[in-house]
Amino acid sequence: MAPKTYDGKYDLVELKQWIRGMEKIFTIPEVPEEKKVNIGMFYMTREADIWWHIVKDRLSGPEFI
To answer: Looking at the 3D structure of the chain, how many domains does it have?
Structure first.
């Protein structure tokens, strides 16, 4: 089952469902915490993808590597 993408719409229910879906997917292969952000960004589209490309350059720290 392929994970859903998130397009950045301001719909809290849709966002919450996307986050829960990603969390479920991460538990199956026991994805390490430090890889979850990098994997999750591949499932962001449209406005969410644009937002992430702006924000990621402003973030620093080992949790975003």
So the answer is: 1
Task: Tell me if 6 is assigned to some domain.
Answer: no
What domain range includes position 55? 12-64
Tokens 């859903």 locate to 4
* Rounded alpha-carbon distances, angstroms, from residue 53 to 1, 7, 35, 38, 44: 26, 13, 17, 12, 10
pLDDT at 1 exceeding the cut of 80 = no
Locate tokens 């479920």: which residue? 24
- Whether pTM > 0.90 for this model: the answer is no
Angstrom distance (rounded) from CA 17 to CA 24: 11
